[in-house]
Amino acid sequence: MSYTTYYLEMHGPEQLRPKPLPAELDIVECRIKQFQLNRFLYQLVGAPWGWTDKLGWSDAQWRALVEPANHRTWVAYHQGAIAGYYELLRAPDGAVEILYFGLVEAFFGKGFGGPLLSHALQSAWAWPGTARVWVHTCSLDHPSALANYLARGLQLYREEVSLG
Questions:
Q1: Which domains does the chain have, with CATH numbers?
Q2: pTM for this prediction
């Protein structure tokens, strides 16, 4: 099966078209790094979309990703339950990638995707020295993913078709 990967970027915080955060959604940065939490979030959010590339990773590989200072994680909660999360990864040139982003399946359709993405973009731009924010998604992700990225002000700069 073929699929398309979309690469999107933003070059300044003024491009952001934020969606307000609902009062019932709390987003917290995980300031104490726990690679096991990131592995859990990756599986929890990614399962419906076939995120499998890191399922076989060792503890050392997860630590190498999560523990450096250029990696940050936020978790969204609704009524005490994990509703979604995102991870930011900063490159030496000041480009910040939204490495992972998504909602837990039980929270699809509740209007949390736009506010969570707005929070992710605001967090990326608030990180001192950020020069660019980018993300990639694909046609196998949630059907609203690409539309949400575009609605928040990210601009498509590359598409790649892969023949599965």
A1: 2-163 (3.40.630.30)
A2: 0.95
